[in-house]
Design brief:
Length: about 160
């Protein structure tokens, strides 16, 4: 008897660090798919505030509650990661129209390269202005971002900025 096919999707990103906006998308995707792989981009030319291992740990801890999330990292093309892991679908959050142009371009490129589909999920309006880079900038200058990132990330942000 053949096994039922596992419906699997990937949520890719830099996650430097993971925000409540990311978690909103990951959590909602986890209800639509049997398994959601959160894939952290390893970007050699850009050293982040947090190392890849730290981001993976943050993601592992903050997504454990959903029960069907796997955290991984990748370098190179996302479609190659999708092919290797047998993932037919990318899930992306769209915050505003300004996100759309580039996201559409990437979605069409990924589809033309490997037939990988992209599903856009509208971001919860509570987080429509939120990005990891803004979180880092505001936190660096002493602004309160505790309502925008999980407590664990907040703690690590405080420590990192102190250094
Ligand atoms: O969180 P980010 O930095 O906005 O995520 C961007 C990411 C990682 C989703 C995107 O840069 C990506 O897919 N990079 C992998 C390289 C790749 O596949 N490039 C071709 C895109 S069509």
């Amino acid at each position: 008897m053949s096994r039922p096919m596992l419906r699997r999707a990937v949520c890719p990103g830099s996650f430097d660090p993971v925000t409540n906006g990311h978690l909103d998308i990951i959590g909602r995707a986890s209800k639509l798919y049997d398994e959601v792989v959160v894939a952290v981009l390893v970007n050699k030319s850009k050293s982040g505030l947090f190392a890849i291992d730290e981001r993976i740990e943050q993601l592992t801890k903050t997504t454990a509650v959903y029960g069907n999330i796997v955290i991984d990292s990748f370098r190179g093309l996302l479609v190659d990661f999708c092919r290797t892991h047998d993932i037919p679908t990318i899930v992306k959050g769209l915050r505003a129209v300004s996100d759309f142009d580039y996201e559409l371009q990437m979605a069409q490129m990924n589809h033309s390269l490997a037939g990988v589909e992209t599903l856009f999920m509208s971001t919860n309006p509570t987080y429509s202005f939120l990005s990891s880079s803004l979180v880092k900038e505001v936190a660096t200058w002493g602004g309160d971002v505790s309502h925008l990132v999980p407590p664990l990330v907040m703690e690590q942000l405080r420590d990192r900025i102190k250094q």
